[in-house]
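Sample pair:
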Amino acid sequence: MAKSCIGLDIGSSSVKAAHLVRQKAGHKLLGFGIEPLPAQAIVDGAIMDHGAVVDAVGALISRLHLKKRAVAIAIAGNSVIVKKISVPNMSAAELAEQIPYEAERHIPYARSDVELDYQVLGTHPMTGRLDLVLVAAKKEIVSDYAEVLREAKLVPTVIDVAGFAVQNAFEANYDLAPGETAVVINVGAAFSNLNIIRDGASLFVRDIAIGGRSLTEDLQKSLAVGFADAEALKLGIVFDDRGIAPEQVAQVIATTADVIAGELQRSIDFFLGQAGDTTVSKICLAGGTAKLMALARAFERRSRLPVEILDAWRRIDVDPRLDAGFLASHAPEASVALGLALRAPNDKPAPGVLR
């Protein structure tokens, strides 16, 4: 049986872990869990409270009784840049030598400050040039995340990009017809990862600094409540003694959901404006915020496309000993962890994976 990794999604509000084993007929889920992080432990993708993140990772790994040490993680936000570029057709050896020079042209950081990787998508049928995805991540960020894993007695084996991890989860659970194009969006707490997919390839990927925390902050401001109460209101908890009507909460959520959908729709429109006659058939939403139906409705209004909520376990064989209710309630936000758990040491990565 091929080796696998623990998928560890270190987000800005929580840490999520997924443990899969490969079977002849697919994958089986042996464990999944979530551990919250203190506020401001991770800001804009950068680790601000190292000890708190180490403690959360360690607590989650211990609670799930995970023995495997190899871990796949993802990075997102301002620390990572993904570019689709075109270069003259050349051999693999020549391309490896050329990539640092291409990075100087396309990446706004000094070569010495970033980790680079790339993947060839294929030869363009019209120009004969090589299309490829170039990825750069700040060395400081990669080093910080790797150090967290080592302190938690784990082995950093794969470092992926969050948008590509979600693509892995989507493709493990859903089919697209040949030539069909779909938009997969993971709406996290601080960042949303947008990936436009066709025929197993990523056509466009972008991280946008907007997410579920915007909803919490707007609820705080509009209803004059604290952060914890705003989070509870966002999750549908009603405070009978506060004089806050459910209609007030719903209105704030609907307004902010429309702002989030509008921001992400602009990126989709930008891609479509550059892509000629490409059309999108559907949008699939992932992440904890995707569970708010107001967000799906806002996307449907703006895009005029069907919107589906990603179910990370749709085609995954689940160990019957696991809590089915817990898994169902967290299926949308498990997408990054699942996508990472589908990775294996030295496997063939999705476009843009760092090692």
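Residues 350-355 have pLDDT under 50 and may be disordered.
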